[in-house]
Amino acid sequence: MDKVGIVGYYQVKPGLDIMMSPYEMIFEAVRGALDYADLKRKDLTTVISATNDYYDGKTISNCFKVEAGGAYMKDESKVEMDGAHAAMYGLFRILSGNHKLAMIYGISTPSCYQYESVRVLENDPTFDRPINLLNSYTSGGMQMRAYMKAFGISEEDIAKVAVYNLKNAAKNPLALPEAKKADITIDEVLKSDILSTPLRELMYPMKCDGATAMILAPERQALKITDNPVWIIGVGNVNETYYLGDRDLSVSLSMEMAAGKAYEMAGIKDPKSEIDVAEVFGHTACEDLIIAEAAGLTDKGKGISMVDRGNLNPSGGTMAGYTPCANGLTRIVEAAKQLRNEAEGHQINGAKMAIATGQVGFCAQNNVIYVLERGGN
Amino acid sequence: MVFQEHQIRDKILIEYKYTMGGQSKFFIELMNNKKILGTKCRKCKKVWLPPRINCSECYEDTDWIELPHTGTIQVSTIVWYGAAAFIQNVPYGCAFIKLDKADTAMFQGVFSENLVPSKLKKGQRVKAVFKKKENREGKMTDFFFVPEDEWERWINKPEYEGGD
Question: Which of A127, A130, A239, B74 has an alpha carbon within 20 to 30 A of A100's alpha carbon?
Fold first, then answer.
């Protein structure tokens, strides 16, 4: 694969209810990314957004966002749901040779709709939805139980991951203020409300308003824009069956396969030693481990060792604020910040190679992974 | 939801129907005969539940197969927290259940007289309980599962019955 460079990004500071219209948020993110890279709207050749029709309360949810997103009178398209998938779409457009600058953004404002209720509409309307028992809590609870059972993991172990993430969030200036918990203890997590056994409230990220934007350029163009772009050198995407009962929830087979493709493309032989830092999109503290393990960063059931090493989600991951449709893109941006030595307050020293992941669906049905390499000096 | 004066409110109510085509047999047999049908791949013989008209692995046709009403819990959870869309059900137990003879597990509610995690453990044997015929409507809500040792008591309740 030809190298594609990440040359700019911007994250709108998330909030439980930030009282901005989505159009203001998109403008701030897109304009912020352009300003960061010292580019103008006219330089963009394509704009790809990630949104969700049900979250936005309208079909073709991108059609009102064209102007705020800088896409007015330009090549424009949308991906339903996660920004990491929009980034893949943007990447393909760049690799086609037809585009020299792609703006990618993801946005949602869960302060304006009932997130957990809308997620129920993700259910298959024939088998799962009529019984109205499957939702984001139950899928998270069953996945955690399956993981604990398969690898002899305790609730304390998962609470430790939650504590780690929430403490990391305290060091991240762009974390949701309510998620910044520098003094949280394992005991507090274990005493928080049960959502769906064994999943507890503090193991489950808070949903918040947020938007993230990122700019991609082909190698030559990227080097004209910046001396130190972050290179996307591998990407993998695999989708698995919708019905969770077909799957072993203690692992992520789709991420394992996606990572295999991405590492092959990137020439990574041993991800355990070659990847310095990982920003993974987990829907719960437990799912962070499942995804990191599937991405080959540790052996199965040993994800907690990354928490001890401190190179998993230095930003706090989604536990630092879960911004639907922007989550995966934020993971890529956070990984890119690590490689550019720009992760204020949560920098991993000397990070040269990173992965970032995105996902869609209950228990991460569809996974995408990027291998990112520091460019320049 | 909490609204402020200047915020524009909206509520969308749209009716849908879902034509099940070849899969309709599952719901018709459930409603009329309390049968739980899966499908079996003609090539690899994998038994799918929920039924797939075509095998997802081989991409070949499948045939209907009647499955027993007993099975085993693969993984479960008990829900203690609700959002507007499902709060009326809280607390409730649910699980992925692999019916005997099936190769994939189906999501369904598991009712118990004593709703604690130890009653819904991995490996717990469960059996299907059905609504009475007049209340069955050919939907997944026509049945649920209970731990096998509670089955006799559940089917003796006036609103429920056992299968054949």
Answer: A239
